[in-house]
Design brief:
With about 110 residues, the chain is of the alpha+beta class. It has a single domain (about 5-105), classed as Glutaredoxin (3-Layer(aba) Sandwich). About 55% of the residues lie in helices and about 20% in strands. It contains five helices and six strands, in the order αβββαβαββαα. Strands 4-1-5-6 form a four-stranded mixed sheet. A two-stranded antiparallel ribbon has the order 2-3. Helix 2 packs parallel to helix 4. The longest helix is centred in the N-terminal third of the chain and has 13 residues, at about 5-15. The N and C termini lie far apart (about 30 Å).
Length: about 110
């Protein structure tokens, strides 16, 4: 990963309370897993930003190295990697995701 790409990813993750690297965008997800994440975050009514990894192959590969996580989507809350679709579903169902988001948005 180039230093420039790492700096870009650092900036996206640090400058946004809740950030999702996904296929497509929050208005038009391009895969079922990305759609799951968008639906969960929308259900909680929390603001979040996204980046479409399909538009940039370097970001698509680089984010996997950055997080040491092999799949997309990837969710970051308050600068910390949380996980992908399966992890978000679990956190949503047990109530932890809402708590994490509220703490992040309050800080």
């Amino acid at each position: 990963m180039t230093p420039e790409l790492k700096a870009k990813l650092d900036s996206l993750v640090q400058d946004n309370k809740i950030f999702v690297f996904m296929k497509g965008n929050k208005l038009m997800p391009q895969c079922g897993f990305s759609n799951n994440v968008v639906q969960i975050l929308n259900a909680l009514g929390i603001p979040f930003e996204t980046l479409d990894v399909l538009e940039n192959p370097d970001v698509r590969q680089g984010i996997k190295e950055y997080s040491n996580w092999p799949t997309i989507p990837q969710v970051y809350i308050d600068g910390e990697f949380v996980g992908g679709s399966d992890v978000l579903i679990e956190l949503y169902q047990n109530g932890e995701l809402q708590q994490m988001a509220e703490v992040a948005l309050a800080s």
